[in-house]
Amino acid sequence: MPSEDTEDTADIEGPAGATAGPDAAGTAVDPKTAAAVAAAEAAVPENGESVRVDSWIWAVRLVKTRSVGAAACKGGHVRVNGQNVKPSHTLRVGDEVRLRQEHRERVVVVKRLIRKRVGAPVAAQCYVDNSPPPPPREAVAPAGVRDRGAGRPTKRDRRELERLRGLMGGGSGLGQPRGR
User: Fold this and answer.
1) Where residue 168 falls among pLDDT bands split at 50, 70, 90?
2) CA–CA separation, 61 vs 68, rounded Å?
3) Strand 96-101 vs strand 104-110: parallel, antiparallel, or unpaired?
4) Strand, coil or helix: what is 128?
5) How far apart are CA 107 and CA 114, in angstroms?
């Protein structure tokens, strides 16, 4: 029968044995982070259980909602080990997940499988981020933003906007003759 002293230390260490001291790498761990890691350990699937790719990318905070993750999979924006996958594809530790988002691509390697969404510090421990750095804000800035109250664009303004969008790759093919 355990004494009260051992129960008190078990509360400090947490259910998974995570302590508030240095971790395996020798760096200090915040007690709140240690508690969050212990909660994440509870979200780890047991042996034999699998984790869906849409659920995992949501749990590690790569997408905002699970339905957005499923839509990204259906749209061909998620690749696992170089193959387009369905939302129900099961992940394994060591898989490389590529997620195309807005103006960048996220490349992560699965370190830990989790089913439930966890805090950002814990989520970052579940994968290795090999993504290229995000593009500068100037490169992503929307083209042709008009001042509030400026009214509708004139024909000249519209043509300048179309010319600018054509240069950025989203144009409607300027310079091509139009049919009647």
Assistant:
1) low
2) 11
3) antiparallel
4) strand
5) 18
